Amino acid sequence: MRITLVGSRHFGVTTLNMLREHGVPIVRVVVADAEDRLAAGAKAAGIEVTVQANPKLVVASEIGPDTDLIITAHSHARIGKDALAAAKYGGIGYHPSLLPRHRGKAAVEWTIKEGDPIAGGTIYHLADRMDAGAIAAQDWCFVRKGETARELWERALAPLGLKLLADVIDYVKVHKALPSKVQDEQFATLAPSLS
Fold it and tell me: Who's near 57: CB < 8 A, 6+ residues apart?
């Protein structure tokens, strides 16, 4: 199972570390910013780093050779169809909500703002529409009273994302396919930016 990891920041680094601890070969790390901490972590581990030509789009030439699966971890770039086609199993990402609820940016903030008593995370297939691909894995957690978005992310949602990613990778190793369940569009919400 050869992985190209596309991401940034702390969650990108923790995903990189989880993959390495899980014994999964990472053939390339793709970042939008050469100064990002994920780029530094990958270089320190001796992993090839590619900086996206367009920070909003990852193309096939940026995907590592013989990649089986593309994983995104805190990436705001779209993975182009050509890039997905370059990987045997396409690509997956982690979204910190129970998709199709709170699609888009600021999902954790909207979970808090809406007063949701339950939050969760979803591993989903990367697709043309943002956060709309089939669900590969999903799990939930309770939201504590008075908890901030950052507290919820750090306490429950980031660790949940790492666990779900590892579970899906293990599934693919055994079944040679990604699990897939179509999202129910009648429950879809788009979380607008909170800027």
Answer: 77, 78, 80
Beta strands in the chain (DSSP E): 3-7, 26-31, 49-51, 57-58, 69-73, 78-79, 91-95, 118-125, 135-142
Which one, of 169, 187, 188, 182, lies nearest residue 2 by Cα?
169
Each residue's pLDDT tens digit, 31-76: 999 999 999 999 999 999 999 999 999 999 999 999 999 999 999 8
SS3 135: strand
DSSP state of 186: G
What lies within 8 Å, CB to CB, of 99 at 6+ separation is 122, 124, 131, 135, 138, 183
8 A C-beta contact, residue 80 and residue 59: yes
Evaluated on CA atoms 14, 16, 18, 20, the torsion sign reads: negative
Amino acid at 173: K
- pLDDT confidence of 192, banded at 50, 70, 90? low
